[in-house]
Amino acid sequence: MSQAETRRTPGTPCWVSLMVHGLAPTQEFYAALFGWEFRPGPASLGPYVRALLDGAEVAGIGQLPPDRHLPIAWTTYLATDDADATAETIRHCGGTVGVGPLDAGDAGRLVIASDPEGAVFGAWQAEAHVGTMVAGAPGTPVWNELVTRETSTVGKFYESVFGYEREAVVSADFDYVTLHIEGRPVCSLHGVGNALPRDKGAHWMTYFEVADTDEAAARVTELGGQVLRPPHEEQSGRTATVTDPEGAVFTVVRSTG
């Protein structure tokens, strides 16, 4: 398969990564929870590993320098054909570029930015590394959702930067928008108003598929993480919102269908 065939359409979520203080214990946690194995990734950004499931890359985990006290959070990367142009558009549309554009070895070129509401996301211009190579199986990222105050203004930002088509849920009390590319839903925006966590602010949430949501939530606790929202039924399936031992929030889901 050629690179042209595997490179994601711009705007498609293509990778998730996590920066932590303790690389080894974090690997142990996710290996026990999702069955991930690890191999070293590009060293240009410091100690970094790629998580594998049956030999296919699914996520990245890096180690923060000891003096960097950044929020520990999973970062969603959206595909781009031109990281430099995307960085310019982000600035022009009211976002902030925090890192890059810079090369990650021969893997690709990246930008880490925040939208006008402060939610951090990445943009990834693939070269040797296309991104997540397997989807749908337990242990893989299956959905990405922006949790924000309201969707209308920030929705226009993502639409301008990545060319999404927006499809809103028409409801008086539910502020929810699905973002589409070429008619296909790829991610969503969820406006939660004053329910937005003050300590986290607006943020992208990664959903990881699991075989059994209740079992996964119990396992998170056993492994030193926390359950923030116990297992419950949603339209997408049975979900639970949890954190790893360093506090990175993510959602586990047993998808319906």
How does this structure look, described?
The protein is of the alpha+beta class and 257 residues long. It is 19% helix and 44% strand. The chain contains five helices and 16 strands. The protein has helices at 3-6, 23-34, 83-92, 151-162, 213-222; strands spanning 13-20, 37-40, 48-53, 56-63, 74-79, 96-104, 108-114, 120-126, 141-148, 165-168, 175-181, 184-191, 203-209, 226-234, 237-243, 249-255. Strands 2-3-4-1-5-8-7-6 form an eight-stranded mixed sheet, covered by helices on one side. Strands 10-11-12-9-13-16-15-14 form an eight-stranded mixed sheet, covered by helices on one side. The longest helix is centred in the N-terminal third of the chain and has 12 residues, at 23-34. The chain starts with a helix and ends with a strand.
